[in-house]
Design a protein that fits this description.
6-stranded mixed sheet, 21 strands, binds flavin-adenine dinucleotide, Flavin-dep_Halogenase_NPB, Trp_halogen
Length: 497
Amino acid sequence: MRDGPVRSVAIVGGGTAGWMAAAALARNFAADRVAVTVIESPEIGTVGVGEATIPPILQFNALLGIDEDELVRRTQATYKLGIEFRDWGAIGERYFHPFGRYGADLGGVAFHHHWLRTREGAWSEYSLPAVAASEGKFARPSDDPRNVLSNISYALQFDAALYADFLRELAIGQGVQHVQGRVVDVRLDGETGFVEDLKLADGRVCRADLYIDCSGFRGMLIEQALETGYVDWSHWLPMDRAIAVPTPAIEAPTPYTRATAGSAGWRWRIPLQHRTGNGHVYASGFIGEDEATAQLLAALDAPALAEPRHLRFTTGRRRLSWNRNVVALGLASGFIEPLESTSIHLIQRGIATLMSLFPSNGFAAPEIDLYNSLMRSEIEAVRDFVILHYKLTRRDDSPFWRHTRAMAVPDSLAQRLAIFDNLGRLILDPSELFREPSWLAVLLGQGAMPRGHDPLADGLPEDAVRAQLQRMRAVIRQGAAVLPSHADFLSGVRAAS
Ligand code: FAD
């Protein structure tokens, strides 16, 4: 291990990951304590997608001192109450994965057991964000926990390039050095294998104590130099290609992302203020590029604004996220696939975990090991949740869906599904990102009705429970009715500049 405090950090990559890391480091450490440099190559460019987020991004932005309204204006953002899934359980079906909870627990028993017992009303009617989203409404949550509007939780849909620009400005304003150039060589210490320095194409040399690899899928430091290895999850998540194409902005942008299942993948639609992001994520083992492109173009609501962009990836994670004096963040550390918009969140988690284990006193194996095991748990929990969507399908109209229906899933997921199938119980680890409402949205949304409910729910008289559930639905309906339209809310924020 290398002794001595880390006084300098070099971040390779100026995509979302690189600038998120730079802005957070600059915020946490005075420039004279830890010098931060971002090296990026304009000729290589960024992946340029990554428009949909999940609620914790708001905390990250707040910690950086970002004014949310300003961010919404600068990144052409819209608000997101969840994801609409079309054609996943079966063709013609739809369900909504909302941010926020369903109903309210009764008699100390989780709400969904009362619903499973009575089947009173539709499941989605117990979620305020789901009802609001279906009506194109949006408002920020109320601070008063007694107000039904406190049940709203939201995220943003933004232009990823503009978000990186915003963070770059912030980071540079706080003393981060910005170097434009291509890293062509990574020199390792012959004894320790630690990264010694980086050589740029123009001959400059960059040296730091800690290196953060944000170089995207190529993993310039973590893989090309350190040969850390990759854990491939293609057998569970066979998506390996994506096509992205923008269309004009929708007049009344929906406060949600749409994910429509196709014959060998799914298509996204993300409405922003200045354009709509569209894409097709697909498994090349089941569909060719021409057919995948044709499916995407045929499904667009409006003419494309640019030629389709093609991307390739392998789902999985780097064997270690932190190896020697290199921490990989973003696509360099792994990629699940964008179905539940989790990539940017995992960057955020990586940064927060690095901050809490920062090698201020030199590199120590216990801290590095802990970082790796924490990040591994985070990404594996997300992996299981994403696999769930494919495993639960009842579609059999194409070889792809027949494959995902029949495939074996990780033991952790198989066990959870078996427990849910019995009495509808969900026992999650407290550290998991996706909580009970998210699992229930997908399980019940795709028709995985358990055989029973927790008998504890039978302790309350059924008539009284039904009456309570009817009241909950009425309160949610009334709550949604008073919300402004998403378009009006957005206009208010834009006009307030
Ligand atoms: P990149 O954007 O690829 O940036 C890499 C950087 O490294 C660039 O600045 C490049 O110039 C630099 N670089 C590379 N090599 C060198 C070198 N040799 N020298 C100097 N610089 C170098 N995430 C979400 O959270 N929500 C979504 O909705 C979402 N949708 C996605 C859809 C698709 C199809 C894909 C593929 C990803 C999606 N993601 C999404 C993931 C998201 O795009 C990434 O997590 C995010 O953009 C971070 O990327 P990055 O910064 O790690 O890499």
